[in-house]
Amino acid sequence: MSSKIYVSGLPYASTGSELTDLFSAHGTVESVNVITDKFTGQSRVFGFVKISTKDEADAAIAALHSTELGGRITDRE
User: Fold this and answer.
1) CA 63/CA 10 separation, integer angstroms
2) How much is the pTM?
3) What are the extents of the domains in the chain?
4) Which ranges constitute the DSSP H helices of 1-77?
5) What architecture is the 3-76 domain classified under in CATH?
6) Which of 19, 21, 33, 52 has its CA 20 to 30 A from that of 69?
7) What is the mean pLDDT of residues 44-64?
């Protein structure tokens, strides 16, 4: 069963492909959704990553929690 990871503290220029690349090293990424402002199109500094299993999601969280991405410290929960 897949798990959805909430990712916060993203840079304003974040893209789904960046998150896919980052998380795919730790598991099979099923989908990525970077939440954007409807007027500017910029990231609202959070998003969601759906990974295929809970074990892979836990491994990604452990490996990537409080890491730097684009000059900002990001959190995964």
Assistant:
1) 16
2) 0.86
3) 3-76
4) 16-24, 54-64
5) 2-Layer Sandwich (3.30)
6) 52
7) 94
